[in-house]
Amino acid sequence: MQMMAWKDWIKIAFLCFLSVGSVVLGTTDEGDYAVLEEFRRGLSNPELLKWPSDSKDPCGPPLWPHVFCSGSRVTQIQVQNLGLSGSLPPDFNKLSMLTNIGLQRNNFTGKLPSFNGLSNLQYAYLGGNQFDTIPWDFFVGLDSLQVLSLDENPLNQSTGWMLPPDLENSAELMNLSLIQCNLAGSLPDFLGSMNSLGVLKLSYNNLSGEIPASYSGLPLQILWLNNQLGSGLTGSIDVIAKMIFLSDVWLHGNQFSGQITSSIGALVSLTRLWLNNNRLVGLIPESLTNLPQLQSLQLDNNMLMGPIPNASFANFSYAHNSFCQSTPGLPCSPEVNALLDFLEEVSYPPKLAGSWSGNDPCTNSWLGISCSDGKVSVINLPNFQLTGKISPSLANLHSLVDVILGGNNLTGTIPANMTALTSIKLLNLSSNNISPPVPQFPSTVRVLLDGNNLLQISLSPVYPPNVSTPSTNRPTSPNRTPPSTAAITSKTTRRFNILIIIIPAIVGVLLMLLILLLFYYCWKRKASVFAAPSSTNTEPNNSLDPYSLAKLASKNDVNSGITASELHSINSSINSNAYVTDSGNLIISVQVLRSATKNFALENVLGRGGFGVVYKGELHDGSMIAVKRMESAVLSNKALDEFHSEITVLSKVRHRNLVSIMGYSVEDNERLLVYEYMHQGALSKHLFQWKQLDLEPLSWKRRLNIALDVARGMEYLHNLAHECFIHRDLKSSNILLGDDYRAKVSDFGLVKLAPHGKESVATRLAGTFGYLAPEYAVTGKITTKVDVFSFGVVLMELVTGMMALDEERSEESRYLASWFFQMKTSKENLKSIIDPSISLTDETFESISVIAELAGHCAAREPHQRPEMGHAVNVLAPLVEKWKPVNDDDDDCLGLDFHQPLLQMVKGWQAADGTTSFGSTSLDDSKGSIPARPAGFAESFTSADGR
Ligand SMILES: *[C@@H]1O[C@H](CO)[C@@H](O)[C@H](O)[C@H]1NC(C)=O
Ligand SMILES: *[C@@H]1O[C@H](CO)[C@@H](O)[C@H](O)[C@H]1NC(C)=O
Ligand SMILES: *[C@@H]1O[C@H](CO)[C@@H](O)[C@H](O)[C@H]1NC(C)=O
Ligand SMILES: *[C@@H]1O[C@H](CO)[C@@H](O)[C@H](O)[C@H]1NC(C)=O
Ligand SMILES: *[C@@H]1O[C@H](CO)[C@@H](O)[C@H](O)[C@H]1NC(C)=O
After folding, report:
1. Domains along the chain?
2. 269: helix, coil or strand?
3. Where is the composition biased (Low complexity) (predicted)?
4. What is the mean predicted confidence (pLDDT) over 317-336?
């Protein structure tokens, strides 16, 4: 990098000093002071605060201990763990500029004051106290809330309390921790639309009912619902298999029932799953124990059956279940397998799931099973409320003599291969719901089928009406043999003859009508679900971008768009789709991606980045995706590790300003990652190539918005994700624009996890010249400040429309970063380098000057002189606010991207269940504005890192 003149650096340092050092002096706002004074008075041990008694100026100087201010307003009170006792003032919410409050682990008592209207409050840590009442309006107007903890407070103990729907307006809420604070009732549905919620901890409350289906789209990483104190949570846990970012799940100590769905294999980031002490039944799916990140699995005290799968991790406990073996990896005996298949078809009724344990059905302890000569000979489960089908696996129990299943609710047909059972004497299926056809058993078998309505109707016409008819058209004789050999009394009358013809005819017509109605209903329904996608093919303005999908999803709770139940039904059709692997992983089939990208056609290449080539793809319904295909030449172990770690990283960092991963694909030698598609492509294209590509130049307003979007995405990556990530390759070609020109940062191929907070990590050099921070280029040590530098360069590009590094330019201006420093120092020079495509008014220039200053600050030579990304957000946000476009009404859906990957995936599978040949889908040219190489991965230069 070209060195700058020493005096320029001094100037920059001076400017930075000015902007950091200018603190507004002033006395504390009287109202704020009054609340603090009241707070002090409410304590029985205020001396612990060490607040000076002679000062009325908490905002100082000097600042009162534990108090933080901005100007004259109190923004933080941090008194955690001080042993304070007493109660809070009722008008606490007059501290209207409060952003962060930490009262946790003290002895506060009494009523929690209302937080109503604390619209700046981001962090509220109130756990570990003795607050006993929470007012109903506590959650009103908490617009900025990101973290709320009320753990371990005896709130409204006598009645319990429920989360008021007001909380739904805290759209940025990420952590909600309400452990052991007397929540009662069912899990609130509305939480399912909180699209930033990554952590939900509700353990040790009094919750009951099921996990709402609406939670399926939540980007949760941590979900704790364990140990509810009353009867506990019930129902199936299937919905968690759709929260694909989960890493830590505690559901133990409840009454969850049903099976563990094999689609749990979709939870590739899952590290801990505790399901012990529930009422789960069925087999443990191998897709669960095979999960790549899983380290701890507790399944004790359920009614799980079948073999115990081998697990590669040590922390696996499974005691007190109904497994057939006590050692992992051993299979069940063939008879047990057949009986388990039988149970599966009737959904493992708890009574049987609890009793059919071990590998020997003949121990006398198996309810309803008798044996002779050590083989199962009798299944005796009459009136057992069995619901479901009869498994053909019964035919594998070769010694069966009597099968007594009368008085249940069995449906479907009698498996044809049961006729091959050689010892069978009795098959009693009377009073069920068996449908035809009935297979023909030898005449030695007594088959009892009375009281099966579907059989009565369809069997009637079998009897030739004027030859012989049954004594009644609802035969009830328990000893009736199968129809073909039926001994039918032939006392006939004319009247019966007529009835026998007419009744089936009427029933037939009614059935026909019913089927037609059903058909119409299904057709309507399907049409309404997919109307939006298909209509987009003809209407580019309304095209199916991520945001419109997100909008659809956001309306789940209203009566329009896709409803939660429809989503659910689409999702469950996946289970039968061929594109789910044996292990049940929710992954997109290579077939689908092959056809979406026209077999990875050259013309669909968007660019090269990370370990592979990125392709544009179009799904069956016209929605677009971006597919990164790992080059098969680099399928080394290291590359495979990177593939998995990229999935893991991307699953952990979910933000509306970061391009998100929608799915992935692993088959044979193929390793594919699927991202959301950004219609307008890379920012670089709009800045540097708009003329060639015939694009509209970006207005300053748009540039500001883009800068803020990027700053927010990077801030999240650095601080707000649960770990600290460093992008290492931020540049305008990695900033992608959506249809509405909102920006997202992409290409996480080089992302590094900073192991200990933000300390520097030594890495091999990677990144792109022109954006590389000087200290990184020299030492290879990175901190988040490396990204801040790159961000500064991107800002310079936004201001000047010039590329970070351009060999064509004169030596002096080759590196934008150094040249910009010299030029921005004078107003005239700055004016001369502003992108001529920006229409320059006084107002614009003022705003540009601020950004130029920020750019310089961010790209300061020394890392410690550069601000945090949060500072950039704070500088940009008010500017954007001022320049807010009139029709900027899309903010409400921007945060909803989390629904989008799943929705898109679902649509992908739907598309896949038709043909996989691309030729049959019409490639729509109305969206022809997408050039062949929009996303600018291609400009990427990465060095020495082998990528
Ligand atoms: C807090 O209250 C508990 C129980 O009332 C008491 O045991 C404890 O000593 C108190 N702690 C302090 C620091 O006052
Ligand atoms: C808690 O109890 C108080 C007093 O009994 C009641 O006014 C308040 O509405 C309850 N809080 C909630 C959130 O229901
Ligand atoms: C949110 O919760 C996670 C998990 O408990 C925790 O690691 C993280 O620090 C929390 N974030 C904040 C800002 O409190
Ligand atoms: C009966 O059919 C089932 C499923 O079609 C099959 O698994 C089973 O092996 C068959 N049993 C016999 C004895 O034919
Ligand atoms: C039988 O099953 C059907 C559907 O599975 C259900 O609607 C019906 O209520 C059940 N009948 C009884 C008696 O359990």
Report:
1. 32-159+170-182 (3.80.10.10), 334-493 (3.80.10.10), 536-677+900-942 (3.30.200.20)
2. coil
3. 465-485
4. 94
